[in-house]
Amino acid sequence: MSEFTVEIQSVLRADASEVWGHASTMEGVNAELMPWIRMTVPPSARGKNLADVEVGREAFASVLLLLGLLPFDLHHLKVERVLERGFDEESWSWMQRRWRHERRIEPVDGGCIVTDRLTVAPRLAPSFLVRAIVQRLFASRHRYLRRRFGVHP
Question: CB count, 10 Å around CB of 85?
């Protein structure tokens, strides 16, 4: 099971700061992930954003719920770096030896560009299968972002 990288990008009509305000909270993350996945959030982390996370340490463990109901993985969330409008997450779970998620939100005239880059090292399932799932999941997240914030003309 080899490591792979997936990258997806969307050009949105919204201001980069507005999109960052959404993307830097677990509420925003879960809005993007649903209806396929929901991440549980411990009470101590609810209502916070990435600026509140201690960088370089595990923030919390989250149960991943398929369709928002069925537990299927335990994700150990660790943020390596928080930028003005982006982050680098280096986490792991029961199913993934490595889950690196880099998100950047860059302003452009009349909107912003959101780029997600995932580097994943599966632990259990074959890489080709996990890659397909990650691609579809992040395509769904970006469809949500385009619906919510509009597509840049």
Answer: 19
* pLDDT tens sequence across 18-67: 999 999 999 999 999 999 999 999 998 888 888 888 899 999 999 999 99
Q: Can you read off the two tokens belonging to residue 56? A: 């370089």
pLDDT tens digits for range 65-91: 999 999 999 999 999 999 999 999 999
CATH class, range 4-149: alpha beta
CA distances from 55 to 11, 93, 120, 132 (A): 28, 18, 20, 30
- C-alpha 62/C-alpha 91 separation (Å) is 11
Max distance between CA atoms of the chain, in angstroms, equals 43
How wide is the angle at C-alpha 137 spanned by C-alphas 79 and 153, nearest 5°? Answer: 95
Delimit the domains of the chain by residue range: 4-149
